[in-house]
Design goal:
With 148 residues, the protein is α+β, with helices and mostly antiparallel strands. The chain has 3 helices and 7 strands. The chain has a 7-stranded antiparallel beta sheet, covered by helices on one side.
Length: 148
């Protein structure tokens, strides 16, 4: 009995670490993300490529040197907006969202707690309104997407 108790306390930290890592992992694989992105044409822009940047999944849609990017990042990345002055989260269809934009760069980040991640829609070298970026999120199906 004593050995069992000692073993339990020796294994407890490792078990907690594994559980913590699983709870912070995005609930979508890169392969699923890639298949999903190939079905989209945000604002009429054709799919160009996907890639990874650390834990983030990236998709690019490019036309005439203008770009729409869609990124999935860990849920904890939502708070990155705090690095920018004057940016305030708002509620978008039951999800926390934040819009950051100026001239040639616009980014909408929306929390997707059901997938344990955030979706970010970014436009480069083009003017995009908040409504345009929100429409891309809605049309992507991200708000209704279920983990597998």
């Amino acid at each position: 009995m004593r050995k069992a108790i000692i073993l339990f306390f020796l294994l407890l930290p490792a078990t907690c670490l594994v559980m913590a890592q699983q709870s912070t992992r995005m609930a979508i694989t890169f392969e699923d993300f890639e298949s999903w992105m190939k079905t989209l044409t945000p604002m009429g822009y054709p799919f160009t490529e996907t890639g990874r940047n650390g834990e983030e999944y990236l998709a690019t849609f490019l036309k005439e040197m203008k770009m729409v990017g869609i990124t999935l990042s860990p849920l904890s990345s939502f708070d990155d907006y705090k690095k920018f002055k004057g940016v305030t989260p708002y509620e978008f269809k039951g999800h926390r969202a934040v819009l950051i934009g100026q001239q040639n760069f616009w980014n909408l980040t929306v929390e997707l707690k059901n997938l344990n991640c955030c979706i970010q829609v970014t436009t480069v070298y083009m003017e995009a309104r908040q409504a345009d970026l929100e429409k891309i999120v809605v049309e992507s199906g991200a708000l209704d997407k279920k983990p597998r």
